[in-house]
From TrEMBL:
A Pfam entry, by short name: Glyco_trans_1_3
Protein origin, superkingdom: Bacteria
Organism (species): Aquirufa salirivi
The protein, known as: Glycosyltransferase family protein
Length: 395
């Protein structure tokens, strides 16, 4: 059995939730998580649902790259990309903090939930400690994955960032809604979504109210406007608003809640459907509870655009470009999906993750790569095809 440190991207709730899920699976298999390191921006507070779960386990928080939204609702791709250069010294210091944390807790392996500083740490140390990277983003590098045909440049930068997070990783695990062939050439294995036992223990009932989850609070304006025109639909919306830290009753039929894991799951199990900004974890949970989902990506958020496309292809629900909830009202009458394949796939999580954790800490008989070759071996300087593969663009 092994001892592990989890490094986690702290933006949103998805990667933090996945870390909790894997903690549960690992402990059931006899492994131990000896510490957690969370990367966030501007010392953003780590949600209480995560800190409450880990209890008194060692926890490190440090500065890490994140998406930039500016003053609007859309992701600012250029500004997000420039972070790596303008704040490189800060991130280098974060890698030093992570190195000290790892030295103090002496793990057998590192489990990386799409955290950029982990890749920087592995590069500067020569990957002395074996690392495994997990996330839906790694599935996008799988040559068997079908992606959207548009926004090739955005996909290139997304995939480039994904490769950077996985520098020095022995293997990448791509979370997938449904089974997909592994990409052995790129060392990418496909695994089911990592759902917490609290989700699996819920009893789903057919309710009448709708549930919404927003990764950015400014997107709430569209839902507010729609709810005013549709007072017959009861809406509960979860957000991370900087000012509204308590429950906010916008109107008789629209209530906003601060992020609260247990209440969110309770509401999901009882709702008629979920409106989501196309985060992978929210879609995966809704599918398990057989709730139709309307997936509306944050503007310019390429990862969520791909999530919405993939979710629709997998039978999760409706992919849309705006919060025109009239579309969802019509769609719910048509939504019929057999979730049996998905449930069987989810049941494979425990077995597959135990195998991957054991393999990670087994002695590597192959000759170790030098630190100088780690970067060039991990990055594919190419653009994506429609099927998710990578190719050099014609000029």
């Amino acid at each position: 059995m092994g001892k592990f440190i989890f490094t986690i991207q702290g933006e949103g709730r998805g990667h933090l939730t996945q870390a909790i899920s894997l903690s549960q699976l690992a402990q059931e298999a006899g492994h131990e998580v000896v510490g957690y390191a969370v990367g966030s921006t501007n010392n953003r507070k780590i949600p209480s649902f995560f800190t409450d779960y880990i209890g008194d386990k060692p926890l490190l928080q440090y500065e890490s790259p994140s998406l930039c939204y500016g003053n609007g609702k859309a992701v600012q791709v250029g500004k997000t990309a420039l972070q790596a250069f303008s704040k490189f010294k800060t991130y280098w210091n974060s890698a030093s903090e992570l190195a000290s944390f790892i030295d103090e807790n002496r793990p057998d392996g590192i489990i990386n939930f799409y955290e950029s500083i982990t890749g920087l740490h592995q590069w500067r140390t020569g990957a002395k400690i074996p690392c495994l990277s997990i996330g839906h983003q790694y599935l996008l590098l799988n040559k068997h994955f079908q992606t959207i045909p548009e926004k090739k440049i955005d996909q290139f930068f997304l995939n480039l960032n994904t490769q950077i997070t996985a520098i020095g990783s022995k293997k990448k695990l791509g979370l997938s809604f449904l089974p997909l062939e592994n990409d052995t050439k790129r060392n990418i294995d496909v695994i089911p979504p990592l759902l917490r036992k609290e989700v699996k223990e819920l009893k789903s009932t057919a309710g009448k109210s709708w549930l919404a989850y927003l990764t950015h609070f400014r997107l709430a304006e569209d839902i507010m406007a729609w709810s005013t025109l549709n007072p017959d639909i009861q809406l509960d919306c979860f957000w991370d608003h900087p000012s509204h830290k308590e429950i906010f009753h916008y109107s008789a039929n629209l209530t906003f809640h601060p992020i609260h894991a247990e209440l969110y799951l309770e509401k999901m199990s009882q709702c008629a459907g979920l409106i989501s900004t196309a985060g992978f974890e929210s879609i995966a949970e809704a599918m398990y509870l057989a709730k139709p989902t309307m997936m509306v990506p944050v503007p310019n958020h390429i990862e969520q655009m791909i999530n919405a496309f993939d979710g629709a292809q997998s039978g999760a629900g409706l992919a849309a470009s705006t919060f025109d909830l009239n579309l969802f009202k019509v769609y719910q009458k048509e939504h019929v999906t057999d979730y049996s394949t998905y449930h069987h796939w989810i049941q494979e999580s425990s077995r597959l993750m135990d195998i991957h954790l054991r393999e990670l800490i087994q002695p590597d008989r192959k000759k170790k790569s030098s630190w100088k070759s780690l970067f060039t071996k991990r990055i594919h300087w190419t653009l994506p095809k429609n099927n998710g593969g990578l190719s050099i663009p014609k000029i």
